[in-house]
Amino acid sequence: MKIILKNQLEYGVPNYSNPYNYTISDFEAIIPLTKQELKNRGFKFPTDNDFADRINSIFRRVLNSKSDSKYIYVNFLNKCDRDFIYFPNNIYDYFGVFVIKNDNYITESFAIPQLIDYQKKFPDLANGENLLPKTFIYENGEEVSKYFWKDDKNLMQRRQQNIETLVNRNKYLFNDNKASLVWLKFHDEYFLEQLVKTFGYVKDQDLLKWVLDKNLIKIADEDLQEFGKILWTKTCDNNIIVHKEVFDFIAKQDKTTFKNYNLSLRVFAEDFKDDNLSFSEVAKIKALVCYYGTKMTDDNLFSYFFNVRDQKYEEEFKKNNYYNLPDFKEIYELTRKGGISLPGEIE
């Protein structure tokens, strides 16, 4: 670890102008550190089977026990990209977590100074950092200033935040710790939202409600796509999944909450479009949203299907055997023949 740390200190804080190349050696240097932090904070490491089940349920990734790979990488910016990225997360270019298969936890890739007080633990390296040249020269001759770790005035706070994030993510996902979920809602919003909106994890109703409340449609064009990410997911094998669990959850809410959710659903059902999807995929999403929305309450019978009543949708639904839902055809034909716009509906 000391050699890796020396190299990281020489180049300074990772940024666009820093040429340091983070590799698996950098990542493996932090494994003992992250594992020990979890132990120190009372994390209960799950069994192999429970861990594999959770990873599959949350991230839709299968842990292959026969594989020699010790890790898998879950890319939050491109969930179908399986390439390892060892550069520390910055949200904009890199954001992901490594699944540690043999030890059963997840962690980001950190630089060593992001986790330990290296100045106290390795004073000789800290003294050496003070003597390092303040610039480096690119191959093209350009001179670029370094930003040393020692000059980060907030490094101690960032380090504590990194450790808290590591611990609370694992305690929430694998120990069902509700206090950790509360902490993450205040300090790790992006991570939590993407569990639902990128990976389609909708089994935790507490999390689902929090994400729904943050993404209700207020301005249709701006909010519609983000709200839609809660309702449906496209898997890496190009399968469209519309989450029935979301509609089941909405149906159980009190009258006022249900009204707010239902309005966003109806806006989505009417206005949804996506240039990155085929007509068949859009039709499937709209069909299932309309179907599940209609089934939430008898009052919704004519609230949804009115915008998919033309022939192209009828032919598409028929071609797909009404998505193998036994009463889809009956409900669809009823709304096509007898549906009218109700007072207050979106015109």
Radius of gyration: 25 Å
Structure class: mainly alpha
- Name the strands of the widest sheet in spatial order: 1-2-3
The helix-strand sequence is HHHEEEHHEEHHHHHEEHHHHH
For the report, how would you describe the main beta sheet?
3 strands, antiparallel
Shape, per Cα inertia axes? elongated
Amount of helix: 40-55%
Beta strands, count: 7
Structure overview:
The protein is mostly helical and 347 residues long. The protein is built from 15 helices and 7 strands. The chain has helices at residues 2-11, 24-40, 48-59, 118-121, 123-130, 155-175, 178-187, 189-197, 205-214, 220-231, 244-251, 255-271, 279-295, 311-319, 328-338; strands at residues 71-75, 96-100, 105-107, 135-137, 143-145, 232-234, 240-242. A 3-stranded antiparallel β-sheet has the order 1-2-3. Strand 4 (135-137) and strand 5 (143-145) form a beta hairpin. The chain is elongated, with a radius of gyration of 25 Å. The relative contact order is 0.08.
